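**User:**
Make up any protein.

**Assistant:**
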Amino acid sequence: MRIRIVDAFADRPFHGNPAGVLLLDSAFPPDAWLQQVAAEVNLSETAFAHPLPPGGDADWALRWFTPAAEVDMCGHATLATAHVLASSGLAEGLIRFSARCGVLTAEAAPDGTITLDFPTSSLTPVETPADVGRALGGVEIRSVHDTAEHIGDLIVELADERTVRELTPDLAALRAYARRGVIVTAPAADPGGGYDFVSRGFFPAFGIDEDPVTGSAHTALAPFWSARLGGRTELTGLQGGARTGLVDVTLKGGRTLLTGRAVTVIDGQLLSRP
């Protein structure tokens, strides 16, 4: 059984966010086996996909697992799956995925970029949860917003880019936060530097201390920063700590388009079968 490791939201190896991609011939094996594979791959997400009969609303069924749990929506592993399908000749043009959060699409352009079409997350202002405040170590927090059910992240606005980059949260304390994760964000220090905002994502409760580039979180970061940057509908986010990647976002009605590149770095065989 062929398995790939793909760096998503990256244009060269060892950048962006790596994801496992396993294409199946038919229906999904038992959940326990899928979870064991994801734990063995031990990346922030491993995607599993199988083809669907023609004539339906989607072409492929898609699921994502962290090393510890299944998630409702994942951007970078969807980008990685679309890259594998397009580069191996298994799909071309618009690819429709049926997932837990509904039908998602991906489209590869001639220049090698892939654009995902995801639902835009809602944002609700909230008070800073006490455990999150303690975990962030007393840094200045400008605002806190909760997001829609599909991602379940907390968006925490910090004072500036330097604070985001230098943050060293208490991951054990963050593990007590019951939702999916915490995204810290700030405006870019240099508006002419090629990106408009920065972010970092921490998901220790789901077995991921820090996710380098969280595509799904940008469905909330896009409207968040659009409201703060003059209503612009096209923005670029830079996410990550030691390992970073760029996500181009476009707000389009109730949808967010996420555009990036991907590169396969490992192509091998999974010897264990369900």
